[in-house]
Write a structure and sequence with these properties.
By secondary structure, the chain is α/β, with parallel strands linked by helices. It has a single domain (14-317), classed as 3-Layer(aba) Sandwich (Rossmann fold). The chain has eleven helices and seven strands. It has helices at 16-41, 56-63, 79-85, 89-96, 130-143, 162-173, 205-209, 221-236, 265-272, 276-285, 292-315, and strands spanning 71-73, 150-155, 178-184, 187-188, 191-192, 212-217, 242-247. The strands form two sheets. The chain has a five-stranded parallel β-sheet with strand order 1-2-3-7-6, sandwiched between helices. The protein has a two-stranded antiparallel sheet with strand order 4-5. The radius of gyration is 19 Å and the shape is globular.
Length: 330
Amino acid sequence: MKTVANIQQSPAAYDRGFLLGLYGRLVLIREFEERVKFLFLEGTMPGTIHQCQGQEATAVGVCSALGADDYITSTFRGHGHALAKGLSVQELMDELFGATTGCCKGKGGSMHMGNMAKGMVPGIAIVAGGIPLAAGMALAFKMQKLPRVAACFFGDGAVAEGAFHEGVNMAAIWNLPVVFVCENNLYGASTHIEKVMKNSRISDRAASYGFRGETVDGNDVLAVHTAARRAVEECRAGEGPVLLELLTYRRTGHSRRDACHYQPKDEREAWFARDPIGRFAQLLLARGDVTQKDLDAIKAGIERQIQEAIVEAKLAPQPTLADLTEDVFA
């Protein structure tokens, strides 16, 4: 594994309630994705899915460092980002079932989750498409003198797109308040990063644009939170953009039809042993004021919440033909 930033991340330095909140959000994303996976496999839901099991700490760590008025841009793998930014299980489940009560009125589906009122631009399925958009939002914040920050999630594959260079360079020359968050899970679809980059340490690229980059253990939620909080503070202080490379690993395929045969067995085993939820649970239990009973209760409550959302989503109203002409601007 690449060398990562040496960040103080002792759980003793944090409030118990805050830590349990992080744990609950991690488990919520994992359980949501697992239930959705089987709903799709059963043919209950339409469309396709790109899931984030194994990458929960990147979304939770970054979004826990943002304020309610800050915005994020996401990707086609955005369920975790949405839940971490505060979208409800019900509005996401309704969206996946194509209901008008979904976060995008059933018109976005899995690949375009979002809710502008909660600070999340609906996911952009074009690889790297959110990068220049985040820079543009950050420019607007600066021009309006608003103390807001834009955080832009993208994968390692997006770094090869021209939009990455254009968006990052724009943010650099104007010192824009945007945190570029690269979720480096080693694979652009099925192609390993070492096959497409001579220097695969993505955070190094920030230096060529004149701002700070940092590589962080993306499977350590406290490390991600600490790095993101520092980056957000720098952006609010007018110190320009930051590039965070979060090293992580997806436990599922690129999409639902991907069996992951390209991932070597030993690689998968090594990363699965560093699962973000299991690691964080051990840190919490070591505090002394958190018990396994506490963690089990959190999971049980989440399971009930998701099951109730599924029941409601199956009964939620579906779009009509008249809805085809609503929300159309061109």
